[in-house]
Structure to design on (733 residues):
């Protein structure tokens, strides 16, 4: 629906003026306007005003002509003058408000519409136009109320009801948005705008398939409706079908190349497919259409991050926040981006996290005191299932004794997959909270009376940190998903371990650090049987280093260190494997960085994303895994150890800098943990020159991993619950 769906019928004003004792020339002008003779009427009125300056009725009539001829500034001036004499006529205020809105004075227009409504309480058109003005100012709650008042005057006003649904959607009032959209469809079964809003609402509630049906219904009614194609693309993305999403978004931009949201969704689909260069082009096109849309800058941040350009990503997130400072999701993304930048320091990351907490979770509620024994443990998470989070959580849940603890998962995601179903079997309650606002989730958790609530997302995009800001449990902790401080005083404990979160770095976090006796996480080995082959160097091939991390972790500084290693090991090569490498731009960028470091392209092998089994099998093509920095990779470290591949890491500052170091410590490989780039390079060269050790590790690392605390799910669960019990009792006093 166009934001210019105005009510501009001048007949009520003409009737009001006709009822007055008008001079004959003005009566003639009114007659001409009723007959549609606008130009003739304007000539007569200008001639009359030349003889009788500032005559109020003539000014009002000329202002109506100005509006018809798209001269809102002139109409505003004339109606301001006319209102001094004709202020008792509600239509004068109505058209003054319309002129003010059209000329960019939306706030002034609201006051004028209110004057009209004050004179005639049932002035539905004035309430409707007030709603449009409030909507343009993004005052969605007030706009929804104005449209509701307009619909109360005319129960068949489908435009007012549809705009009311849109305002409720923008305010994240899902139930009200659904009700208004459904009511608009009842009034007009071919209301494609209402179907679109209903689809957006259902999508926000996690009812993805139902949302897709609404978008298809909108397209069937109006095949040229570009926004519905764009939103259908977003639905496909939520269903994990980026190819179908891309097809829908291409259709959207073909219909309306100026639709910034379509370019954003097209970019998201391309990014999901690993085509970062094309995603960047799509977002640049969106910026050309409208550089003031914060969502475009936020999406650019994500693409730059995946393109191993964290500093550009940080700039994009800051620009999005400059446009819309209230976007807490974007400020969380900024915190994440800082963790990936080699130029960031932990104190800066902490400061940004604290700024997020101060802005979005003011500490206004008193902590809850524990009552009785610790019984109920809740986990609040985003993407579980076939994700690293799902696999890491499984070991803990499998080891928790259900006779002692009742486990509830609050999942901010759509439908469960196979891994999600496995997780659900280990807990007593699974509550889907996708699409629910923070206050609703707060109410749900409060009614469940959790003793401990554990955040698994931190500043990831699916977080529900604001719920923790409402202090819904006596003990609140953050663990696993986001390795860093939330910045929130309401978060009592950050769960780490002695290596990843040493006591010397307690000043880098707001929370109290609760340290596990071994690793801060438990690893569940793959269920798939994947055969290990001898390392490339054992097969007479060149010594091959590898890194399977996301492109956002493989920055220029890391590649410079790898170049030093490769230059010291003649004939060696490196295999990089990740989804982002399906982008030719990324391959070219990395190739250029390697060449600038003295490594020729024939020594760099690229692989894009593969199936899970092929991913594990790819370890047979490398001798040693190189962990990137400053953001290390504990899961990739475990996978490499499972496949008999040693991992070299450099322990940096902050939690994210020591994730692989903690993992290697658990399997007795502290010699592979370095503390500087120089030591990192030296150890990398040493690995390539000790083929006997590579052979020994190939044969024994899997069993070493299985025998380590990393795979002791029962022991991990016992220690985890003991830590919670200890912190819970401390708060009980």
């Amino acid at each position: 629906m166009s934001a210019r769906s105005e009510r501009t019928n001048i007949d009520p004003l003409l009737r009001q003026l006709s009822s007055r004792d008008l001079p004959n020339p003005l009566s003639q002008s009114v007659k001409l306007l009723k007959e549609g003779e606008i130009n003739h009427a304007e000539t007569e009125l200008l001639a009359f005003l030349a003889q009788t300056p500032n005559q109020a009725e003539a000014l009002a009539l000329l202002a109506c002509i100005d509006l018809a001829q798209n001269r809102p500034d002139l109409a505003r001036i004339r109606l301001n003058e006319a209102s001094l004499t004709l202020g008792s006529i509600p239509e004068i205020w109505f058209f003054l408000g319309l002129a003010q809105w059209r000329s960019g004075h939306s706030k002034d227009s609201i006051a004028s519409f209110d004057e009209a409504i004050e004179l005639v309480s049932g002035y539905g058109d004035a309430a409707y136009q007030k709603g449009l003005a409030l909507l343009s100012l993004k005052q969605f709650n007030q706009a929804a109320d104005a449209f509701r008042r307009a619909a109360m005057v005319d129960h068949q006003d489908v435009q007012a009801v549809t705009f009311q649904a849109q305002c409720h959607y923008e305010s994240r009032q899902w139930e009200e948005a659904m009700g208004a959209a459904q009511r608009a469809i009842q009034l007009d079964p071919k209301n494609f705008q209402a179907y679109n809003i209903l689809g957006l609402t259902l999508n926000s509630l996690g009812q993805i398939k139902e949302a897709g049906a609404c978008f298809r219904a909108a397209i069937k009614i109006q095949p040229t409706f570009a926004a519905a194609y764009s939103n259908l693309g977003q639905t496909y993305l939520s269903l994990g079908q980026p190819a179908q999403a891309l097809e829908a978004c291409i259709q959207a931009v073909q219909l309306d190349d100026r639709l910034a949201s379509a370019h954003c969704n097209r970019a998201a689909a391309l990014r999901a497919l690993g085509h970062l260069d094309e995603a960047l082009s799509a977002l640049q096109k969106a910026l050309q259409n409208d550089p003031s849309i914060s969502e475009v800058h936020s999406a650019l941040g994500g693409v730059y991050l995946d393109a191993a350009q964290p500093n550009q990503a940080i700039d994009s997130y800051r620009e999005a926040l400059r446009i819309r400072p209230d976007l807490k999701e974007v400020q969380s993304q900024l915190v994440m981006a800082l963790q990936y930048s080699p130029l960031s320091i932990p104190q800066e990351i902490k400061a940004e996290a604290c700024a997020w907490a101060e802005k979005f979770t003011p500490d206004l509620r008193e902590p809850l005191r524990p009552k009785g024994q610790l019984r109920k443990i809740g986990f609040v998470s985003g993407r579980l299932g076939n994700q690293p989070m799902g696999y890491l959580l499984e070991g803990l849940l499998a080891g928790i004794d259900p006779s002692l603890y009742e486990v509830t998962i609050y999942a901010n995601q759509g439908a469960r997959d196979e891994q999600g179903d496995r997780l659900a079997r280990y807990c007593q309650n699974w509550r889907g909270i996708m699409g629910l606002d923070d206050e609703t989730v707060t109410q749900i958790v409060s009614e469940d009376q959790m003793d401990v609530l554990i955040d698994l997302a931190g500043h990831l995009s699916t977080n529900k940190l604001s719920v923790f800001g409402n202090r819904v449990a006596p003990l609140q902790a953050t663990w696993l998903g986001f390795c860093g401080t939330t910045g929130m005083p309401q978060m009592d404990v950050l769960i780490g371990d002695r290596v990843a979160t040493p006591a010397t770095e307690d000043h880098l976090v707001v929370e109290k650090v609760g340290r596990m006796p071994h690793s801060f996480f438990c690893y569940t080995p793959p269920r798939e049987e994947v055969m290990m082959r001898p390392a490339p160097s054992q097969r007479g091939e060149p010594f091959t280093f590898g890194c399977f991390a996301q492109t956002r972790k493989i920055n220029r500084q890391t590649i410079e260190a790898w170049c030093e290693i490769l230059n010291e090991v003649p004939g060696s090569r490196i295999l990089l494997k990740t989804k982002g490498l399906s982008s030719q731009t990324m391959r070219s960028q990395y190739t250029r960085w390697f060449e600038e470091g003295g490594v020729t392209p024939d020594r760099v092998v690229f692989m894009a994303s593969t199936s899970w089994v092929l991913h594990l099998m790819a370890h047979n093509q490398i001798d040693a895994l190189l962990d990137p920095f400053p953001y290390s990779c504990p899961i990739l470290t475990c996978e490499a150890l499972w496949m008999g591949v040693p991992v070299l890491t450099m322990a940096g500052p902050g939690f994210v800098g020591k994730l692989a170091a903690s993992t290697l410590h658990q399997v007795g490989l502290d010699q592979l943990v370095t503390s500087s780039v120089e030591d990192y390079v030296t150890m990398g060269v040493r690995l390539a020159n000790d083929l006997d050790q590579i052979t020994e590790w190939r044969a024994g690392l899997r069993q070493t991993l299985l025998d380590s605390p990393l795979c002791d799910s029962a022991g991990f669960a016992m220690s985890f619950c003991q830590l919670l019990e200890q912190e819970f009792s401390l708060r009980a006093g």
About this structure: The two ends are 59 Å apart (CA to CA).
